[in-house]
Amino acid sequence: xxxxxxxxxxxxxxxxxxxxxxxxxxxxxxxxxxxxxxxxxxxxxxxxxxxxxxxxxxxxxxxxxxxxxxxxxxxxxxxxxxxxxxxxxxxxxxxxxxxxxxxxxxxxxxxxxxxxxxxxxxxxxxxxxxxxxxxxxxxxxxxxxxxxxxxxxxxxxxxxxxxxxxxxxxxxxxxxxxxxxxxxxxxxxxxxxxxxxxxxxxxxxxxxxxxxxxxxxxxxxxxxxxxxxxxxxxxxxxxxxxxxxxx
Length: 247
Ligand SMILES: Nc1ncnc2c1ncn2[C@@H]1O[C@H](COP(=O)(O)OP(=O)(O)OP(=O)(O)O)[C@@H](O)[C@H]1O
Ligand SMILES: [Mg+2]
Hints:
binds adenosine-5'-triphosphate, single chain, binds magnesium ion, 28% strand, Rossmann fold, 32% helix, 12 strands, 4-stranded antiparallel sheet, 247 residues, 6-stranded mixed sheet, alpha/beta
């Protein structure tokens, strides 16, 4: 059974029809590449899955439940996570704080006074998360704004994983990274898949898409125009779909 099923999704912004009836399924622990030209509707489609945007038409099922009208927080609680292009990290805060941003575990003082942030617990859990990801990060106490792009991406992934997701959507995670850092992110995607998480990877870098994804979906002007098995296609074919050479 599919993990996520999108049926007839439509979305317009004003007079612009951005999603024109999207039908798409994502299976459990599958890594799917979502590609398409600028403005094709990739980010809009993903934000419709997370609930940031509400749809004009269509419905979305997750684990066979209709989630179409659920709030973003409820979708996250069911296991849908998205790492946005801008990462939405707090640059002046340290790594541990970023991983637990907005929901720090609290230690009850003398068993009854609530509301104190348990910094030791945050640090320990952040450290074990970063270790598990095999990331090389100088110290958990470094402000995130001073980390490299790849390290920041790792922090964003670590943060997503603390929600125990079943689906992680990544919007252009490798766009600004150096080659070695790209490899690190692709390895993390592999690790997520091995632990049973499905990943939707948006990227304009077809090398990364071909390295990470078993399936490649091409969006063009708000429609899915190709849904290809990675081993049955090649970059030329994918590019021809992206630019519309297939009509
Ligand atoms: N909040 C919004 N309000 C109005 N128009 C929007 C909004 N978000 C996106 N659009 C428009 O919808 C279309 C699709 O945008 P979207 O960001 O989904 O494309 P994309 O495939 O993610 O492109 P890119 O590869 O450049 O990130 C574009 O024409 C864009 O201008
Ligand atoms: Mg986008």
